[in-house]
Amino acid sequence: MSATLVIARLMLREVMRRRLVVALIALTLLAVALTAWGFSRIPTLSVRGVQIPEVQAKLIASQLLILVMFMFSNVLALSAVFVASPALSADLESGIALAMLSRPISRTEYVIGKWIGLAVLVIAYAVVAATLELLAVNAVVAYLPPRPVEFLLLLIAEGLVLLTFGLLLSTRLSGMVGGVIALVLFGMAWLGGIVGGMGAAFDNELLERVGTATKLILPTDGLWRGAVYALEPAAVLAGSLGAGPVTAANPFYAATPPPVAFLLWCALWLLGMLALTVWSFSRREI
Amino acid sequence: MTDAAIETVDLAKRYGGLTALAGLSMSIPRGDVFGFLGPNGAGKTTAVKLLLGLAHPTSGEARLLGASLSDPRAHREVRRRVGYLPELFRYQGWLTGREVLGLHVELLGVPRERWGNEIDRVLLFAGLTERGGSRVSTYSKGMQQRLGLAAALLGRPELVMLDEPTSALDPVGRHDVREIIRALKEEGMTVFLNSHLLSEVEQVCDRVAIVDHGRIVASGTFAELLAGDTVRLLVTSLGDADLSRFGRSDREGDWLTMRGIAAAHIPDLVAEVVRLGGRVHAVQPTHESLEDRFLDLLAER
After folding, report:
1. What average pLDDT score do residues A184-194 get?
2. Is A115 exposed, middle or buried (0-12, 13-18, 19+ CB in 10 A)?
3. What pTM did the predictor assign?
4. A156 vs chain B: nearest CA distance in angstroms?
5. B130 φ/ψ sector (left φ>0, alpha ψ -120 to 50, else beta)
């Protein structure tokens, strides 16, 4: 097996052994069970003694699902940051890197191996958590969002962006510092998305530019909006169009699918950050 | 370049304004047990890190088993034949000792069918056979150092670099390590031993280099380093005299110190001093130990 895959497997074995995966699975199952119970109550809601029609129940389910998925996307983002931020720095600080990197393995293989291991974790968590939630919702209210695969891919992309950013910081900063920086920027990117939305709503060019800039610097919110779009049924989109541009400021709503140019930028961003991570780690003194 | 295990030419490393290694030039033949001796902070660990590609030299060149530091591909390949026990020995605490060795043997590219035997062999060598199945986080410091030594011996390397290999060991452990180094020598391996422990180096090494402030201040076999003895003569009326054929002379007031002189030549030295017009008042021969020589060398700087 190539050195890269040995490192990837080691990374996965570490998160398994440290019981991170067990904890995540247990909490995810709990969250899915609780939300499924919540969703199962929607059809029983009534207005002035009259049970709400099925169409309305599904509409409510669609909006609630976006909020639940926002929670999962945050868990994914936080987990990605928590595991990636110390992935390299902890090895450097402890001295484990001394023994490992004196072996016939290049720094590039070491970094890419770590990235692959972490990426498998992010992808597995996103797939498992989102699929379980979608299946549970479908089982209790017979509702499936219109583009679940698209949603899943964008959710994974958001996790990969944060994981790569965390890994880059990990080449130079301790896990704690890198983790805090990554999380603060993640929060700011979300806010930047809202600012940009307000710019669109009030036709303010400066605010719109701020939104665009944050989207380009850390594309997590752009990807999240794309994921939201994939969860919105046609009826919601049609209804919101009537409300005008003001809806753009709502962080749980997207009027349009993510532009292809933006998705290409995200791919480039990921590759660029990974290259920067390799470069930074290669120049690092062990 | 020659067929040396390690060869360096003016290898230097500066961290900002701090010089960790100031132009190291040395050549270590294959099969030697080489002691790299110096006080803490002399640049010993820096030299090893540079040789292993863990740190990047500021200037100079080095070859490890013939592979140049400036050729990353060749250097990466040659590291299959090099074992290294870092001074800061730490291994994945969430793995067992056997799993750590399994990881290293896999990175080395040893064929899978040999992993089991290879791991058993080094565990036995390092005296860890019984604890191989325990998590490294439950190991004592000494056991972790033994694990590091075992890892360094995986795949029967041609060159083993040991950085302060007994720092966490008790006297029995130190003795074990000396025996291991002797066994490695018998197998024809080259051993590069970084140490500040004179006795350790004295007992196992063929040759030593003494480093201080990032420079080699002396090197050679023990016979060369301690060549002969030292004699102090109290002499008056001696003008400028060339006594270099007896050894390294040094004059301070009326005291003439001659280092590296064979004891049998002391009467000849006295006769020569008298022949040159010197009046000899006292002759004080002393036997020099490695420690004396080491302290002398460091004091001279």
Report:
1. 94
2. buried
3. 0.88
4. 28
5. alpha
Residue of A5, A9, A13, A98 best to disrupt the B interface, most CBs of B under 10 A:
A98
Structure tokens at B297: 């060398």
Residue A245 scores a pLDDT above 80: no
Residues B103, B106, B110, B111, CA torsion sign: positive
Chain A, nearest residue to B160 by Cα:
A102
Q: Residue B280 forms beta bridges with which residues?
A: B235
Mean pLDDT by 10 residues, chain B (301 residues): 84 91 93 91 92 95 94 94 95 96 96 96 94 95 94 96 93 92 93 89 90 88 74 88 85 86 86 92 80 76 60
Report strand pairing: B215-221 vs B207-212.
antiparallel
Please tell me the predicted confidence (pLDDT) of residue B262. 79
- What's the distance, Cα to Cα, between the start and end of chain B in Å? 31
Please identify among residues 69-128 of chain A the ones whose CB lies closer than 8 Å to any CB of chain B: 94-96, 98-106
Q: What is the maximum alpha-carbon separation in chain B?
A: 78
Size of interface A-B (CB pairs under 8 A): 68
Q: Are B274 and B280 in contact (CB under 8 A)?
A: yes
Cβ pair A106:B79 closer than 8 A: no
pLDDT of residue B203: 86
Residue in the block written with tokens 């006594």: B243
Do B94 and A98 lie within an 8 Å CB cutoff?
Answer: no
Residue B131 per-residue DSSP state: G
Average pLDDT value over all residues in chain A:
93
For residues B218 and A150, the model is more confident at: A150
Please, which pLDDT band fits residue A254 given cuts at 50, 70 and 90?
confident
Both structure tokens of A271: 């590759």
- Contacts with B, A 15-74, CB within 8 Å: 17-18
Calpha distance A103→B148 (Å, rounded): 13
- DSSP secondary structure of A107-167: HHHHHHHHHHHHHHHHHHHHHHHHHHHHHHHHHHH----S-HHHHHHHHHHHHHHHHHHHH
Please tell me the distance from the alpha carbon of residue A129 to that of residue A124, in angstroms, as a whole number.
Answer: 8
CA nearest to B86, candidates A71, A243, A102, A228 = A102
pLDDT score, position B245: 87
Percent of chain A as helix, strand, coil, to the nearest 5 = 80, 0, 20
Selected for mutation to probe chain A from B50, B51, B103, B134 (highest A CB count within 10 Å) is B103
**B14 has which bridge partners?**
B19
What pLDDT, on a 0 to 100 scale, did the predictor assign at position B1?
43
* pLDDT value for A219: 96
Contact B9, B61 (CB under 8 A): yes
The reply to whether residue B72 touches residue A1, judged by beta carbons under 8 angstroms, is no
The type of residue at B275 is R
Token couple for A52: 């709400």
CA-closest candidate to residue B136, choices B89, B171, B85, B177: B89
